[in-house]
From TrEMBL, chain A:
Keywords: ATP-binding, Nucleotide-binding. InterPro entries: AAA+_ATPase (IPR003593), ABC_transporter-like_ATP-bd (IPR003439), ABC_transporter-like_CS (IPR017871), P-loop_NTPase (IPR027417). PANTHER family: ABC TRANSPORTER G FAMILY MEMBER 20 ISOFORM X1, ATP-BINDING CASSETTE, SUB-FAMILY H, MEMBER 1. The keyword Methyltransferase does not apply. It holds the Pfam family ABC_tran. One of its GO terms (molecular function) is ATP hydrolysis activity. Residues 13-242 form the ABC transporter domain. SUPFAM superfamilies: P-loop containing nucleoside triphosphate hydrolases. This is ABC-2 type transport system ATP-binding protein.
From TrEMBL, chain B:
The chain crosses the membrane at residues 21-41, 183-205, 231-253, 259-283, 295-313, 353-371. This is Transport permease protein. Keywords: Cell membrane, Membrane, Transmembrane, Transmembrane helix, Transport. InterPro entries: ABC-2_transporter_component, ABC2_TM, ABC2_TM_bact-type, ABC_2_transport. It is a multi-pass membrane protein.
Length: 313, 376
């Protein structure tokens, strides 16, 4: 797990051997997680890798096939209902009522969480201001833009100030500008002590997390902080420049010691296995002396090295 | 707990009021059904198209024909020269029955023991004519059968010997024997069954289909709160429908409403709750709205056919009566007819009322238990 082994760490989520099968199909396979309180933790992975299923298992929405989950210090099994006031969940698909207005939705969710009278009104005003929804209070939720819907959903999920917040691909319908804004809100929540688990398939978002898990086909392929993941990567990044890069890419990809080669602008970004001692020499031999330099690994490189057919331990 | 129930209640009410189509149906279903059943459905058959095979061609045979027309039960729309032709016409469906008057009809009439005092003891009694009936429709057949003993004393110029019937019949509550008087209160039961079950059977499923459930079950809302909040708005809808049917039935079809307002209200509320919880139970079983609708129809058909709405409960075989007893609508059918037409009080109908109450409580418990706060 993470390199931090200090005894005092309190975990918001602890999962051991968490699995979920749908018939023959294994959606989540022996997932182990330890997410410290007050951090933002990311699930990074392609479509269908089991991000939503994992979140549903951790919120108690789905019954796990195997494994144990501890949420906020309590075993999930048997404490689902009492934990519900302490966790918030923003679903991947918009799950508020399209034919209710923004305010009506907030009113409804507020009442469901037991807010009433002045306290409810004050909290709703606060959220409307915080998530910039004041002009939309009378608009039907169904008629709002993707970004507005997502802000409303976040407002509803955080209405009761949960200690643990699950966000399932919260920014999939949001432009980069609003995504920045959205992440500012997440860091505000985090600073106030909320633990956040967020799933995404955007590298830049994953990079903002304190720690993340890279998932593929229900398996956790790697986890740790973005920095640690990049440092401990099992490949070296070499950037090759020159001409006829398309043909070169073909020859390089076929080589067993090369994990991947991808064209990025005028360069070819090549991931060479760590066991190759002098990657620059190795590449220049393969590429007929084209110019090549060592590059800093990115999270995308980490992702490529730990997923796909060429995945190596 | 009540904050949450109230929140769900308000939410449902708002969603319902914004769904124009559904809102329209709440009003239109009772109105259209009332028109259809009130005007079109009549179990006392009249003006049945029949044919005549008159081989006698006498003044008496024409008098018999006129006497029959005067009953309004039959209309002679065609004449045939032989029984064979009449049979073909019945097979083709042109006429539903034919009257055969033999060539010696006049003699038979005057020799008939009913009209001939001298021949009272004669063993030789010949009918004066014969009806051939398309017996496949039992209502038509029994209407024609009722003509069997039609008195023909005027035709025979004699007073019939047997004038005093064995029994005197006094018809309470519906002296003119209009079908609509019995139909309208029954219609309250059928329409409530239909709309109440239909609305709630989709209630939980819809939240699933629109993805709202995934959020809702991560909130602290309890199954029971969700169930009660979901059905509460439809109690108002049901009462509105009862009011529409009874008042329109009263004004348009002069159906008397004898019972007290309180008994009517109490009985209706009991039945509305029972139907709504039945719908909720279905809603926890169905996976899609289509399935919910199919299940509603599955309940609706026996509700219409076995509840006593179409056919008298007492005439059904015992097994069918058991099934009928299990359906809330049978109990309400008895109650609403008793209250509306016979001014029975709710207390007088304690057994039915109690059953509806128990059904509701059982239904709510089953629905809450079945509804797991889980996905999939
Ligand atoms: N209810 C279900 N029944 C059967 N299979 C399911 C069910 N839910 C999910 N799966 C399967 O489990 C796997 C993981 O699905 P999941 O929704 O967790 O993926 P995801 O990582 O959230 O993908 P996406 O990025 O598209 O949201 C998929 O192969 C999916 O088909
Ligand atoms: Mg997903």
């Amino acid at each position: 797990m993470t390199s931090n082994n200090s005894e005092q760490i309190e975990y918001a989520i602890e999962a051991k051997g968490l699995s979920k099968r749908f018939g023959e199909n294994i959606a989540v396979n022996k997932l182990d997680l330890k997410i410290p309180k007050g951090s933002i933790y990311g699930f990074l992975g392609p479509n269908g890798c089991g991000k939503s299923t994992s979140i549903r298992l951790l919120t108690g929405l789905l019954e796990a096939s195997e494994g144990d989950v501890t949420i906020l210090g309590k075993p999930l099994q048997g404490h689902e209902e009492s934990l519900k006031t302490r966790i918030g969940y923003m679903t991947q698909k918009f799950s508020l009522y399209d034919n209710l207005t923004v305010r009506e939705n907030l009113d409804f969710v507020g009442a469901i969480y037991g807010f009433a009278g002045k306290r409810k009104k004050a909290r709703i005003e606060e959220l409307l201001a915080l998530y910039d929804l004041e002009k939309q209070t009378k608009q039907f939720a169904g008629s709002m833009s993707g970004g507005q819907k997502q802000r409303l959903a976040l407002a509803c999920a955080t209405l009761h100030s949960p200690e643990l917040l699950f966000l399932d691909e919260p920014t999939s319908a949001v432009d980069p500008e609003n995504r920045r804004e959205f992440w500012e809100r997440l860091f505000d929540l985090c600073a106030a002590g909320t633990t956040i688990l967020v799933s995404t398939h955007y590298m830049d978002e994953a990079e903002r997390c304190h720690a993340l898990a890279i998932m593929e086909e229900g398996n956790k392929r790697a986890d740790g902080s973005p920095q640690a993941l990049m440092e401990s990567m099992s490949a070296t990044v070499v950037e090759v420049s020159g001409n006829k890069l398309r043909q070169l890419k073909q020859t390089l990809t076929d080589h067993p010691d090369i994990l991947s080669a991808a064209q990025i602008g005028a360069h070819l970004r090549v991931l060479v296995k760590k066991k190759v001692h002098d990657p620059l020499l190795f590449i220049s031999e393969l590429s007929n002396g084209r110019e090549s330099i060592l590059a800093r690994p990115s999270l995308e490189d980490v992702f490529v090295t730990c997923t796909g057919e060429r995945y190596v331990d | 707990m009540w904050i949450r129930v109230y929140a769900i209640f308000i939410k449902e009410l708002k969603q319902l009021s914004r769904d124009r189509m559904t809102f329209g149906m709440i009003i239109m279903i009772p109105l259209v059904q009332l028109m259809l059943f009130g005007y079109a459905i009549n179990t006392d058959a009249r003006h049945i198209p029949v044919g005549l095979v008159d081989l006698s061609q006498t003044a008496e045979s024409r008098a018999v024909e006129q006497a029959l027309v005067a009953t309004q039960s039959v209309d002679f729309i065609a004449r045939y020269r032989s029984i064979k032709e009449a049979e073909v016409a019945i097979t083709q469906g042109e006429i539903r029955a034919a009257l055969y008057l033999p060539s010696d009809m006049t003699r038979r009439l005057f020799n008939h023991p009913l009209y001939d005092h001298k021949q009272l003891d004669s063993a030789l009694t010949l009918p004066i004519g014969q009806w051939i009936v398309d017996g496949s429709d039992t209502v038509i057949a029994s209407t024609i059968r009722a003509l069997r003993n039609m008195p023909l004393d005027e035709v025979a110029n004699h007073t019939a010997t047997r004038t005093a019937p064995s029994f005197e019949v006094v018809q309470y509550f519906n002296p003119e024997q209009r079908t609509v008087v019995n139909i309208v209160p029954g219609l309250v039961a059928v329409i409530l069954t239909m709309t109440m079950i239909l609305f709630t059977s989709a209630a939980i499923v819809r939240e699933h289909e629109h993805g709202n459930m995934e959020f809702l079950i991560t909130t602290p809302v309890r199954s029971m709160e969700l169930m009660i909040g979901k059905i509460a708005p439809y109690v108002l809808v049901g009462l509105l429908q009862v009011a529409i049917i009874l008042s329109v039935g009263h004004w348009m079809f002069s159906v008397p409403i004898q019972g007290s307002f309180l008994s009517l209200l109490g009985g209706s509320i009991l039945f509305i709750f029972a139907s709504l919880t039945l719908g909720l139970v279905l809603s926890t079983i169905a996976k899609t709205q289509l399935q919910a609708t199919q299940m509603t129809i599955f309940i609706l058909l026996p509700s219409i056919l076995l509840s006593g709405f179409m056919f008298p409960y007492d005439a059904m075989p015992v097994a069918a009566q058991w099934i009928a007893e299990a359906l809330p609508v049978t109990h309400f059918m008895r109650m609403i007819r008793a209250i509306a037409l016979r001014d029975a009080s709710l207390l007088l109908l304690g057994k039915d009322a109690l059953w509806l109450g128990l059904f509701t409580i059982g239904g709510i418990i089953i629905a809450s238990l079945r509804f797991k706060k889980k996905l999939g």
